[in-house]
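Data card: per-record layout.
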Amino acid sequence: MNTDPLKGLNPEDAHLAQKLKAEAGQIKLDPLIESLLDNRLRELHTLKKGGNRFPLRRSLPTLGWIALAIALVMLTNIMIHSLLPNITTQPGNAPKLPIGPAATMKPAPVEPSTPKSDSNFPNEQSYSWRGTKLTLAEPLPESPLDAYVYQLKPDHHATIDEARVLAEKFGLGGEVYQSSGQEPGTPDYFFTDGKQSLSVSTDLFFIYTADMSKAYNYFTLASNPNAEKIIRDFMSTHGFDFPYKVETDELYGGYVVELLSPDGFPMRYEYYSSRPMLVTLDESGQVLRFEANLMDFESANDQKYSILSAKEAFQRILDQNQVNGMIESMHSTSKLANQWRRSYPENQTITIHGYVTAIPAWDSTKPPFIQVDAYTAIGNTSGMETLQPNTYIESSGQFIDENDIQKFNVESWKVSELTEDSFVGTIHNDGQNAIITTEVGNFILPDVPAKFPMPFESAFVVGVKIGNTIDWMLIDDRMVGGEGGGGGGGGGLGFYKLNLSGTPVLFPTPTPQPGVSSGESQYIVKAGDTLDAIAQEFGITVDELTKANNITDPSTIYIDQKLIIPNAVGQQLEGQRGLLSVTLYNKSDGSQRAEYTLYYIPEGASHSQAMRLEGENLQDLQAYQNRPVEIWGTVSDYDKQYGMPIVTVERFNIPFPDLQFKILRGTQRNIAIQGQPVTLFTSDDGQSYVQLTPAGDLDNFIIGKQGDEVIYETLAIPDEIYGGYQTIRTFSGAVANNGPSTELTVSADQPYVMDEPAPQETYIPPTATIDNVELIYYVTNQHWQVDHLDGGPQYIQPAWKFSGHYSNGDMFEILVQALKQEYLLPELAPYIQGG
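The structure for this 835-residue chain is written out next.
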C-alpha cells in the first residue's frame, strides 16, 4: 500500500501538493472534534482510487470552527486531487486522439443547440425556494425534447511508444522517466527538457507544463480577454481538432475546455470531478499548464430518447420533496492571490533551501531527473536520488542558463536542520531593508523587488527562518481582506440507473412525511447526511428514526428533508464512559466559563458521539482533561446547533485516576483485523498498539510514510483492547527521522483555553439566481467514483444543467436527469458527492 500520496507526482505537482499539505496541517482543532469531523469527511468523500486525509491536530475546541475546517479540508482535497493523475475522456464524432485509437461511434448529425425561450418563465421571474428567493435571470430554453445516449469506452495504460508519440507533439524527446502510475504496478511516463514537462498516464490522460519553475506554487491563475483564441491556437498547434467549447472555470480556476457531443452539446463529469480539459494561462497570456482528460465513447444505439423539457426540470428543482434524479454542487468564492516570486542572480554562488524530487529514468542505467523545489538540479546531486520524497535540503551552487532553461548547478548539499514555514505580517521598508513584522517578531526579507508595494499589510510569506532573516521564496496577498472561501458541498441523491430495454419499470409511490408531535424535535437533512449518522447524533436507533418518519428505504433521504427526531429527553445514563474534553472560555469581565463535553461510542455504533455535561460540582473534572470519565445523569435537553444531547450529571467517577500520557517513538503500518483496516503503532520497545483517535474511533492516519520513525503524544487506557492488541489514543505527532530533531511534550492533559465567542447573529439566507440553463451530456467519473462500479455499461446521458450564484458570491450548479421515467430504473447509481 502506498502511504505517501505525494509519491509519483510529477515535480511541480508534488511540490504544490506538499505546500497544500503543509498549510492544511497548520489548521488546529480539538483532537476530539477532529475525530468526529474526520468521520463525517470520510462519509462525505471517499475516492475509488484512494486519496489523502490530512490530520487536523490540536487546539480550537469549539464546535463552531468545524465549518471552517470543512471548508479548508475540502478546498485542499480538491486542489490536491486536481493535481493527481485523474483520468477523463474524448469525443465520439471521429476525433483524432493524441494517442490510441479513434472513437468508433457512428456520428449523428449536428443539430443547432441555440435554445428557444419559454414564455411561461419570463426573464427575472422569482420563486420561493428553500427559505429564500430564486430568480431566473434568463428565459428557460424550449428545446431540445429528445437526445441520444452514449456509452463510455474504457481507456488503457499508455505504452512507452504511445507516450513518445505524444511527447513529440510538444517538442519533448530524449530521456524518458517513470513515476508511480494510476494503476498499481504500472508506471506513468515523464518527459522534460528542464523547463517543459509532460506526464502521460493513459491513452487519454496527460498533463503538459510549459514552465515548471513558473507553475510551481502558481496561484494567480491569470485571466485574459483573448483566452479562447489563445487556447484554440494551442489546441490546433498540438493536433486537437475535435469540437469543444471554452469557458471560465470557477472552481479550479483557469479555463475549462468541454468536449462537444456529435449533436453539439457539452460532455462532462460531476462538478467536483476532473474537467475534460483544464487550461491555466500565465500573466503574459501563454498556456502554462494543460491537463487533458479525454473521453472516448460510442453510441449506445442509434435512437433518440424523449427527455424532460427545461420547464419540467426546473419544476423538479422547485419541488422540495424531489431530490432523486438530481446532483447539486456549491462552492464559496475563492480569492485568487497576487504573487511575487523570488528571483535569483545567475553565475553567483548562493545557498537555497527546498524540497527534493527525484524521478528515476526508464532506462535504469541512466541517472534520474532531480529538482530542488521547481529548479532542475545538475552538478553534485549524488545521493539526492536516495532521499525520501520531498526531503527538505540546504544546497549551495549557482543558477545558470542553458538554452533558455534555468538550472541550479549544485556544488554541495545536506539535509536541512530547518523547516519551511509561512509567516503573516506587515512588510515595510526601514530605509535599508524590507522588514516583515509578525506576531513573533521582525524579520529581514532579502532581495524584495524594487517595485514591491509597501507598506503591505497581511502579507503571506513562504520561506525558511534563518536567524533574523526569512529566506523567502514566495509572497502573496491571500490574507488581505480576511481568510475564507473555497468551501463547498453537494446535495441530491444522484441519478437513477438507466433502463434502455424499452419496457418501463414501476416506481414506488412516495410516502408522505408525518407531522411533528409534542415532545419531538425536527432535523433538516444536510449534504452528506446518512440515517445512520443522524441516528447516532441524536442517540437513537436507525429503526426508531425510520419508523418516526415512515421511511421504507433507509438509503433514500434528501437535502433539506425535514426529519422527525423521537425525543430522548428524560433518558437515564448509568455509568456512561467516555473521554472528557474541558474548554475554558475567557469572558469579557475577566472571569472564565467552563464547558464539559464527553465523547463516547454508543453500544453497537461504529463512530463516536458527543454529549454536553452540565450540573453542580463539575469543576473537579478539570483535572482529568482527555481522560476517561464515567457519568450518571439524565438527558435534560438537546443542543440543536451542535447536534448533541445535554446531560445533567448527578455523579461521576474517574476509573483510572493515576492514568498518565506518554510520549512514544516508533513506526506505523497498516494491517487488517477481522477485515477492518487499522493502523498498528509499534514503539521502540517492541510493544504494538492499535491507533485510536482521542474520541475512540479507529485512527488510520500514518504520519509521513509507512515505516518512518514517528513520535506521538499518547494515552493507553488499560481495559481498551482491539483485536487482541492494546490500544493507544493519539493526540499530536510528527515524523522523527527527517530534518530537524523533533521533540514533543505532554500538553493534552491541559484544558483548552479560548476567548468567549461573540453571540451569533440571526442568519438570513442569501438569495439565489440561475444565470444559465443548458442541456449537457453527463457520465460519472469512473476513476473518481465513491463506490465501486458494478462493471456494467457507463452511459453518457442527457441532463439539464442549471448554474448560478448566491447573493453572497457563492456559486452553485444543479444537474437534473433529463431522460423520462420510462427509461429509468427505481435504483440510484453511484456518483461523486461534493464535500
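Known properties of this structure: DSSP finds nine helices and 47 strands in the chain. Residues 271 and 329 are 7 Å apart (CA to CA).

See the next section for split statistics.
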